[in-house]
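$ fold --in a.seq
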Amino acid sequence: MDKTHFRKAFDSPYLSSADLVGPTVLTVARVTLEKDRTKKTQDLFNTAHFVERELRPGETLKPMILNATNSNTLKKLTGSPFIEDWQNLKVTVYVDPNVRFGKEVMEGLRISPKAPTVASITPATVKAWQNAKAAYMRDGNLDAVLARASMTEADQQQLIAECRK
C-alpha cells in the first residue's frame, strides 16, 4: 500500500521532499530565474524545469527551486556558472534528511554531485529495443523511454519507423 507523506497536504507549486520516494533520475530541460510562485515572497529563484512530464503515472512533475547548494552542484556538473547552460542534463534528485534551513534541520532535496549512469538503447540491445517499441506503441511517444535511457536521434527515428510498419 502506498503511504501519503504529511507534507502532501501543504500543496506546493514546487517539487519537495514529500514528492520523492527514492533517488530519482530527471532531465533538466532548462533553468530560469523566476519569482516565487508561492507568493510568500517577491524573491527570485533559480528554478529547474524538467523534460519528464510526470513523476509517477498521473502525478505531474513540478519544477524545483535550486538553492545555493543545488545551484553549485549544477555549476560543477556542467562546468558553467551560467543557468542558461544548465539544460539537457540528467541528474539524480534525492531527499537529504539533514538539510539546514536557518537554525532547523529538515528534509530537503539535493542533486547528486555524480552524474547518473544512463542505459543506452540501440537495435543491438534487443530486449531493451523491444521494450522501447512496446512503450512507443502504448504511449504514442518515447517520453517514458527517454526518461530512463538514452537513444540517438537516428535510433529514435528507426524505432518509430519499425512501429509504424
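$ fold --in b.seq
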Amino acid sequence: MEKVLKSGKFAIFLFLLFIVFGSLIGHENKSSKEVKNRREIETQAVKIRGHEEGETIKPKNKQNKPKKESVGKKDKGHQPKLYLVTKVIDGDTIVLENGERVRYIGIDTPEISQNECFALEAKKKNEELVLEKRVRLEKDVSERDKYGRLLRYVYVGNIFVNDYLVRNGYAYAVTYPPDVKYSERFLQAQREARENKRGLWAYCTTQTQTQTSTPTPTRSSAPTKTQTQPSIICSYNAYNCSDFKTQAEAQRVYDYCMKKVGYDVHRLDKDKDGVACESLP
C-alpha cells in the first residue's frame, strides 16, 4: 500500500513539474514572438520615416558594389600616354626610358658625326626641349625606319617639337612618303625660318659665304639639268629631295658632291645604299 501511495505522489510530482516546465517554455516563446513583432514594427517605422524623408531603404543583405571602370578608357580619350626622355642623341633623335630610340618625322638636323654647321646647337636645343621631360608621341604611317628606330612626331606640353626645330632654324624640313601628314606645315616653317634668317639659315650661310666669297643660293634653289656642275653646292647642306623633280637630278647632285667632299653633305641618301632620293620618280 505504501508503495502505491509513493508511486501516486511521484506521478503527481512529475505532472506538476511538466506543467511548470511547459509554462516556462510557453512564456519564453511568447517573449520571442513579442521581440520579433517589436522588431518588425520598428523596421516598418523606419521604412515609413525614410519614405517620408525621401530616402531609399536598401535591403540589408545587398551591398552596394562599385561599378567597374574600363581600364585605360580615360587615358585613351583624355590622358595620352607620356614617355620620359632619358637621352638626346642629336637634334632629331632621342632615347626613351624604356630604351626605345625615336627619330623625329619630317625633319633633319645637321650631323654631329660629320661636324656639320649648327649640329651642336641643334642637339643642345633638343635637350632643352625634351631631356628629362615626359613627351607625347604621334605616329604617322610608318612604325619604324630601317635602323629600328620609332618614327614619331613629338610633343612636350603644348610645343610641337618637330615644328619648333624647323621654325626656329635648328632643322631642315624633309619629306619621306608615306609619312607626310605635316609636310606642308614643315615646309612653311622652313620658309619662315629662312626668310627671317633664324638659326642655321643665318649662321651657316654667313659662314659659308665668308669661306667661299661667293653668294650661296637658298635651299630651294636646286640645280637643274641646264646648270653646269660647278654651280652645285657641296660646301654645306643646301638641298632637300623635295627640291628635285626627278631622282636623276638628285642623283647627279649626290654623285658630284660625293666626289668633291667625300660624304653625303645634303643627306639625300638616307639608307646609305648609294641611291639618292629613292622616293622621286
